[in-house]
Amino acid sequence: MSYEMLQNLWFLLIAVLWIGYFCLEGFDMGVGMLMGILGKDPEGDPEESERRKRLLITTIGPHWDGNEVWLLTAGGATFAAFPHWYATLFAGFYLPLLLILVALILRAMGLEYRGKGESETWRRNWDYCIIGGSFVPALLWGVAFANIVNGVPLDSATMEFTGNVFTLLNPLGLIGGLTTLFLFLTHGAFFVALKTEGDIRHQARAVAMKSGLATAVLAVVFLSWTNVNTGNKPLAWALTALSAVCLLAALWAAKLGREGWAFTGTFTCTTLGVASLFVALFPNVMPNSIAGQTGLTIANASSSEYTLQIMTGAAVVFVPIVLAYQIWTYWVFRRRLSTKHIPAPAHY
Questions:
Q1: Number of alpha carbons in the 13 Å side-chain half-sphere of residue 316
Q2: How many CB atoms lie within 10 A of CB 327?
């Protein structure tokens, strides 16, 4: 395999890793954000509210930490395959990425430690960590990718980011953030509807219908604006159109009470939407928004040919193992749950 083919292959693999992360961790974040909505009993019963919150955590309990492996692998693959891209990205986007990291840590701590105490205050504080730790990444990942694909100001000599955090908070970046926020919220609501029984299932489906409409509007604006900025590539437009169709199909399936098809719809919508961003980005990895200045491309940001060859061999061995394990876990924990399966808290 030629050096150019290896570079293109690893760009493709990194795109697949980000697609996997957004599709899988996306519904995790959605469930976390829904703790403040679906975790409240409509009749105000504190014991039932606690059962509902624990039910939401139980739906993602076997999966959330495994889903985060996709992010770690995407970061590691970028570092090894395209070190210049990694250096520019993590130096220029330092504050947003730090906020994402802190939020993910707090969310993980909330999921792990919430059940370790018996006081209402203890659980409520960890609830805030889970909700906030899901909200912040859901928003900032969209901001980050909007800027990566559409370009940021770079020094043409050093390829260092010359802006600041406010440069990233441009109108298109904020629309990108709101798009991923509402997409993950909808994706998570469909997952809850798919995994639960009873009132919480119907409430989750109702929430998904409302957030899904907001997602459709935001996604059309964001992806269309991005496609225009990146040269109106036919494949990117085709993927954008298919992504929109899948989202609308998901909402229609939910209206018919088919949560499985609805979740498949948002899963496919996310896959195609993220794929359209990478198609729009290719062959760049970090475009320069300064007119007439060059940015980072696959060719000038990649590692040596020998490094890519070694990485390819490792990927051939380990990627199928990781995929097989994750598929197995989702199959084992496929059963629907309800608050009846959740025992009463110890202090009630």
A1: 7
A2: 10
Of 286, 226, 281, nearest to 93 (Cα)? 286
Cα separation, 82 vs 123, in Å, equals 42
Q: What is the pLDDT of residues 76-118, one digit of tens each?
A: 999 999 999 999 999 889 999 999 999 999 999 999 999 888 8
- How does pLDDT run across 277-292, given as a tens digit for each residue? 999 999 999 999 888 8
pLDDT tens string 159-185: 888 888 889 999 999 999 999 999 999
Residue 291: exposure state from Cβ atoms within 10 A (0-12, 13-18, ≥19):
exposed
CA distance 336 to 172: 39
pLDDT of residue 198: 87
Could you give the CA distance from residue 186 to residue 208 in angstroms, rounded to a whole number? 5
Distance CA 338, CA 336 (A): 7
Q: How far apart are CA 123 and CA 159, in angstroms?
A: 46
DSSP H helical segments within 114-151, as ranges? 120-150
Task: For Cα atoms 52, 55, 57, give the angle at the middle one, nearest 5 degrees.
Answer: 115
CA distance 96 to 136: 9
Q: Where are the beta strands (DSSP E) in 7-91?
A: none
- Do residues 32 and 136 lie in contact, with contact meaning Cβ atoms separated by under 8 Å? no
**Whole-Å CA distances, 57 to 245, 246, 247:** 30, 27, 25
Of 248, 278, 324, 316, which Cα lies nearest the Cα of 78? Answer: 278
d(Cα 14, Cα 21) in Å, to the nearest integer? 11
Q: What angle do CA 88, 11, 156 make, to 5 degrees?
A: 30
Residue listed under structure tokens 């794929």: 275
pTM (global) more than 0.90: yes
Cα(97)–Cα(100) distance, integer angstroms = 5
Q: Hey, which residues does 296 pair with through a beta bridge? A: 286
> Token pair of 91, please?
């130096």
